[in-house]
Amino acid sequence: MVWKRDESHLPEQLRGLRLPMIGSPLFIISVPELVIAQCKAGIIGSFPALNAREAEGEPPLLEAWLKQITEELDRHNQENPDNPAAPFAVNQIVHRSNARLERDLEICTRWKVPVWITSLGARVEVNEAAHSCGGVVLHDVINNTFARKAIEKGADGLIAVAAGAGGHAGQQSPMALIREIRQWFSGPLALSGAIACGESLLAARAMGADFGYVGSPFIATHEANAQEDYKRMIVESGAEDIVYSSLFTGVHGNYLKKSVVRAGMDPDNLPSADASTMNFGDGSSKPKAWKEIWGSGQGIGEVTEIVHAADLVDRIDREYRAAGAKLAAEFIG
Ligand SMILES: Cc1cc2nc3c(=O)[nH]c(=O)nc-3n(C[C@H](O)[C@H](O)[C@H](O)COP(=O)(O)O)c2cc1C
After folding, report:
1. Interatomic CA distance for residues 18 and 38, integer angstroms
2. H helix or E strand, kind and range, residue 92
3. Pocket perturbation via mutation, ligand 1, pick of 168, 189, 282 by most ligand atoms within 8 A of CB
4. Domain edges within the chain
5. Which domain of life does this protein belong to (predicted)?
6. CA within 20 to 30 Å of 252's CA: 52, 68, 171, 288, which one?
């Protein structure tokens, strides 16, 4: 049997992936080494532009990263014409406190970044910058209202961030969120939240998402820029070890309880914070929130060892195909 995905509704940049999956942008953690490994493994790799942070007076590190990623993937494609790398994505935090946004847009436009992921506010000028260099914009949203706004402002596709996602997660069930968006939107749609195995990726596709948007499992890879303790904590934790709180950045997010305990707090009795404390001027609202209080989604019960990113993609690919074949058999004959 020939397996073929219907990709007729997707723009060119998002077609033909080995696996319908995006390695999501992770603050501090996503660095060129991880992005390159994800793309070579056949999924879209990504990083937040704010991760590329140069010292005062030095040339923009973002420029150096884009050069490295572009050249390395070009080289791979020349050497492996039958097995080309997937395109990469850059995440722009479109929050008013991100003082670097204009400069970063200019750099990304010049380097013709193929996929742009925007979060924390949809802005027309960001979409225009992406489109001016042939890029595709995916905007992340936590509900249907924000989804409509993002498309009205010119985003090409959506990332539905459901309950259980790592970082700034939503609160809605993925089933409700994806189906409400699919009632009116037929363009590119990714599902974010607790996808850590092929079975869950298949479920996302069955619901109507085009891609699984996978973050936390990549923290436990050799290529991730995370402390060994953090990687091990991901391996050793499950859904019950995650706490949902607004305390650390002003926006609700999911974090590893054990890291909260290590920082001297009680994860079961955290006060809440208000969103006005959010500040991305220097890259993060509170650097400590991500350096000491470690973010993670609920899906990490599926993560049992620290591996290379390519091995993680291989595992999810194997599971996805096996689960798909098993389910398809129910419908044959
Ligand atoms: C440690 C951490 C950092 C994150 N940083 C960002 C970020 O800088 N920008 C962004 O758009 N999303 C960020 N996210 C959210 C992810 O891109 C994605 O929505 C989420 O990880 C998917 O859920 P999962 O972790 O359960 O796979 C972060 C998530 C985590 C766990």
Report:
1. 11
2. strand 88-93
3. 168
4. 17-223+305-329, 229-291
5. Bacteria
6. 52
Task: Locate the ligand 1 atom nearest the alpha carbon of residue 299 and give its number.
Answer: 26
Q: How many CB atoms lie within 10 A of CB 227?
A: 11
Per the listing, tokens 């080494």 go with 33
212 pocket-lining for ligand 1 (C-beta < 6 Å): no
Residue 15 CA to ligand 1 center (angstroms) comes to 23
CB of 114 within 8 A of CB of 13?
yes
pLDDT digits (tens, 9 = 90+) for 4-51: 889 999 999 999 999 999 999 999 999 999 999 999 999 999 999 999
DSSP state of 25: -
* 24 CA to centre of ligand 1 in angstroms: 6
pLDDT (tens digit per residue) in 231-243: 999 999 999 999 9
Question: Tokens 């290590």 appear where?
Answer: 262
Instruction: Report pTM.
Output: 0.95
Which of 286, 144, 160, 262 lies closest to 211, judged by CA?
160
